[in-house]
Amino acid sequence: MTVRVHSSRRRLLAGILGVSVLAGASVLAGAQPVDARFTDLEYAASGTFTSFTVPPATITACTITNNAVGIFQSVTLVWTSIYPASGVRLTLTQGATTAVVPASNIATSGPSGGVYTHTAVLSQTLLSSLLTNLLGSTTTLTVNNLLVGTAWVSAGVSRQLSIGLAGLGSTCT
What we know:
The protein is an alpha+beta fold. It has helices at 2-29, 41-44, 124-130; strands at residues 58-66, 72-81, 88-94, 97-100, 106-112, 115-123, 137-145, 157-163, 171-172. The protein has a five-stranded antiparallel sheet with strand order 4-3-7-8-9, with no helix packed on it. A four-stranded antiparallel sheet has the order 1-2-6-5. The longest helix is centred in the N-terminal third of the chain and has 28 residues, at 2-29. The N and C termini lie far apart (113 Å).
């Protein structure tokens, strides 16, 4: 029996000694304080931030075409953009009504020097199909550039189409 008692005491002492060594080692090592990368001045002072804005188009012409007696027939809007046909939108706004001009009514040429030229010839018939009251009204023609594949849209550039009550005295400014 004495052999068993000594053996049990040795195991108990070995266990206590092992736990003591582990506890002492963890106290000596301790956790070292660290800085988070976003608070460390070494990293915070060297970062840069840039943003992107979709550049607007440039309207180069807005021309009215009248028939032989001076009655409005169509308006031609010409603009340039760094975006191809898939990256532009032309809307018409009259009062609370806004309509998008179909892409099939916009002709595109280029690019020339990285710039596309877009031309929309909007006949009286097309305008009347998109808006309810054409004669005696003012319609805002607005062009936006679109970053395809995103919801990003440029600031709009606009011209005002005014058509007299009888279709006379039309202007685009």
